[in-house]
Each structure stands twice: as C-alpha cells, then as structure tokens.
C-alpha cells in the first residue's frame, strides 16, 4: 500500500531526527512520500488553516509532533498557554486527519504528564491515575487529552490513532535557549558560554532529581517502528531502562566531559528542582522490540555537543 506521511512539527528536535533517519538510514520506500511541516506551512492552532493543509496533502499517515514545548522553567510560567495552545493544536490535527481519512496517527505524549504521586516505575496504564506535577499541569492535561481523543476516535470511527510516550529527549536541532529549553540543551549552551568567558557553569537546582534521557535519533527509529508496525490504540512508553536513569548532576558531568570544560561547576539551589523523578518502565517496548539497542548516553551527548559547537551560529538559542 502506498503511504503518504505528514509530519507536523517536522522542523523541531524530534522532527529533524525523523527526517535524518528517513533520509539517511532507512531511505523512503517505494510508493512512500514524506512531508515535513513547520509553523510556516500553517498555524495549527487555527482550525481552518489546519484542515486546508490536510486537504491539500491528504495524508494516509500522520506523525503529530507540533506542540508548544519547553523546559521546567517555561512550563512554570505559562501553564495557561501550554494548556490552550496544545489543546487547540491537538484537536485541530486529529480532527483534520480524521476528516481526510488518514488511517493512522501517531501523536507524542511525555513521561512528565504522568501522576506526580505514584508508585514507580510508571507504566502505560497509569496515565490518568492522579494529578500531574504542579509545575506543568497545563501541558500535562493537554497531552493527556490526546489519549482521550484516540480512544474516542477508535470507539466511534474505528480509527487507529495512537501515541508514544517518550522520556526527556535531546539531540541535534534541540532548542538551546537557556531560559525556555530543557535541561540538556540548556546545560550545553551554558557550558559553551562558561568555557568561552572563563566563568563557572551554573546548574539550576540541587542536581539531585533523576531523569531518563532518550537520544532523538533513537526516538526517531522507534517512531518509524510505531508508525509501521505498532497496532494498539493504547500508548507506548519509549524509554531507556530504569537502570539508565541519571541524576541531573550526572547529566551535567556528562556535558562537562563532552564539552571539555575545565572550569568550576556550581549549583543554584534557589531555582526549583521540579519533579524529583518520573521513572518509567520500558517493559512494553522491550516485549515488542527486544532487539532494539539504545545509543550509549555518553556517545549521544558527545554527538549533540559536537553538533551544537559546529552549528553554533544557526542553532536555536
Ligand atoms: P520543538 O523542537 O520545540 O519543535 C516543535 C515543533 O512544533 C516545531 O516544528 C514547530 O514549528 C512546531 N509548532 C509549534 N507550534 C506550532 C503551531 N502553532 N503550528 C504549527 N507548528 C507548530 O519540540 P520537540 O522537542 O521536537 O517536541 C516534539 C514533540 O515531542 C512534542 O509533541 C513534545 O511535546 C514531545 N516531547 C518532547 C520532549 C523533549 O524533551 N523535547 C519530551 C517528550 C515529548 P517551527 O519550527 O516552525 O516553530
Ligand atoms: P523536566 O524534566 O520536565 O523537569 O524539564 P527539564 O528538561 O527542564 O529539566 C528540569 C530539571 O533540570 C530540574 O531538576 C532543573 O532544576 C534541572 N536543571 C539544571 N540546570 C538546568 C537548566 O539549565 N535548564 C533547565 N531547563 N533545567 C535545568
């Protein structure tokens, strides 16, 4: 069957990784067409623009990545915007996909949207079991509603619209903006500047919270598998193992090593730590893909740091 895949958010961190894997590793298959969108193609917060874009391309498959995205400190400031913008985008995209008859949509949730008070490890069945962490409730509830959409599209229309749940992602083409972005790109940018100016690297918070990081290229490879071979409506966590969870301090140490930074490292404990941990189980993924090999964290970190240094002038920052 010929496949026309529309990727919303195709210009972002995850979208660029999928472009790389499709073009450089997997190669587009016979009868397969990929279209990578950015916000320049349409403002997906607007229903008419979204529908017109989908009517123009008439995709059979959709990877839905577009979202208002940010790190802990941006989420804490703009819960209302994260809620409204993402609810509109998701409703418009899923409705437009259905209207043009797309047979599969894979959307993107996040392990940070799970209940805050929970047992560990978190698994796919626990998504709606209690309130999310207060720092990002707007983003979390908006993302959780994608799962409601997917279940309802299946119930009323038999659609196989599903979602993946990645942990913290990092890699080339990330948003390296220090105030708004996530921890890894923020630390890489701060280390670059500290090295250039001969100043200390300041890590925000205590360094004690724990995170599972997935390399954007590994996530992209798994996304393609989900698009082509995963048949469930229920979401699937895409994560490294629990044993690969690291503290923020360990992540900062990995950045320091990869950047060859020899200055002092300080911790600003006046800044929030956010959620302490969100340890996720990748047991479901391992059942489906026991063969999948994640890129070692330090190698992925080195590749990302090298990319940032080489692309400093044009990187998002
Ligand atoms: P990103 O780099 O910030 O990219 C966001 C993408 O969304 C960009 O292509 C952007 O287009 C597009 N976009 C934003 N608002 C839009 C709008 N109103 N209309 C059309 N397009 C719009 O984000 P990312 O990190 O790749 O995230 C991709 C997905 O993964 C998101 O759904 C996110 O929630 C999820 N996720 C991310 C992480 C993480 O750690 N980064 C973790 C878990 C889940 P422009 O480039 O034109 O602005
Ligand atoms: P989260 O995983 O959803 O909480 O989002 P982030 O990727 O923003 O990670 C936040 C964690 O990293 C918190 O524990 C912060 O205290 C810590 N952190 C340390 N330095 C930084 C930084 O420069 N930027 C960000 N965003 N977080 C940092």
UniProtKB/TrEMBL annotation:
Cited SUPFAM superfamilies: NAD(P)-binding Rossmann-fold domains (SSF51735)
Functional pathway: Nucleotide-sugar biosynthesis; GDP-L-fucose biosynthesis via de novo pathway; GDP-L-fucose from GDP-alpha-D-mannose: step 2/2
GO molecular function list: GDP-L-fucose synthase activity; isomerase activity
UniProt entry tagged with the keyword Kinase: no
Gene3D superfamilies, sorted: NAD(P)-binding Rossmann-like Domain, UDP-galactose 4-epimerase, domain 1
EC number per UniProt: 1.1.1.271
Domain NAD-dependent epimerase/dehydratase: start-end pairs: 5-241
Enzyme class: oxidoreductase
GO biological process, one term: 'de novo' GDP-L-fucose biosynthetic process
Keywords: Isomerase, NADP, Oxidoreductase
UniProt KW Oxidoreductase keyword: yes
Pfam families the record matches: Epimerase
CDD domains: GDP_FS_SDR_e (cd05239)
Function, as annotated: Catalyzes the two-step NADP-dependent conversion of GDP-4-dehydro-6-deoxy-D-mannose to GDP-fucose, involving an epimerase and a reductase reaction.
HAMAP family, sorted: GDP_fucose_synth
Family: Belongs to the NAD(P)-dependent epimerase/dehydratase family. Fucose synthase subfamily.
Name of the featured protein: GDP-L-fucose synthase
Originating organism: Scophthalmus maximus
Taxonomic lineage of the native organism: Eukaryota, Metazoa, Chordata, Craniata, Vertebrata
């Amino acid at each position: 069957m010929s496949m026309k895949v529309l990727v919303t958010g195709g210009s972002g961190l995850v979208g660029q990784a999928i472009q790389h894997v499709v073009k450089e590793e997997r190669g587009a298959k016979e009868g397969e067409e990929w279209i990578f969108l950015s916000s320049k193609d349409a403002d997906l917060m607007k229903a008419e623009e979204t529908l017109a874009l989908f009517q123009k391309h008439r995709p059979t498959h959709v990877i839905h990545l577009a979202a208002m995205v940010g790190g802990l400190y941006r989420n804490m400031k703009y819960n209302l915007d994260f809620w409204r913008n993402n609810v509109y985008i998701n409703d418009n995209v899923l409705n437009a996909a259905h209207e043009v008859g797309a047979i599969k949509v894979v959307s993107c949730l996040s392990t940070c949207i799970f209940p805050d008070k929970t047992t560990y490890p978190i698994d796919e069945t626990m998504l709606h079991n209690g309130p999310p962490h207060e720092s990002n409730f707007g983003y979390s509830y908006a993302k959780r509603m994608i799962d409601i959409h997917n279940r309802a599209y299946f119930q009323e229309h038999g659609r196989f619209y599903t979602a993946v749940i990645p942990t913290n992602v990092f890699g080339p083409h990330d948003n390296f903006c220090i105030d708004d972005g996530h921890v890894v790109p923020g630390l890489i940018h701060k280390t670059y500047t500290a090295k250039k100016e001969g100043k200390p690297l300041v890590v925000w918070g205590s360094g004690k919270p724990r995170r599972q990081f997935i390399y954007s290229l590994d996530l992209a490879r798994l996304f393609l598998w989900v698009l082509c071979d995963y048949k469930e409506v229920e979401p699937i966590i895409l994560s490294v193992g629990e044993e690969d969870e690291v503290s923020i301090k360990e992540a900062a140490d990995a950045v320091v090593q990869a950047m060859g930074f020899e200055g002092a490292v300080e911790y600003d404990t006046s800044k929030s730590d956010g959620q302490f941990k969100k340890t996720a189980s990748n047991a479901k993924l391992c059942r489906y893909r026991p063969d999948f090999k994640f890129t070692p964290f330090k190698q992925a970190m080195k590749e990302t740091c090298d990319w940032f240094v080489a692309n400093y002038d044009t990187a998002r920052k």
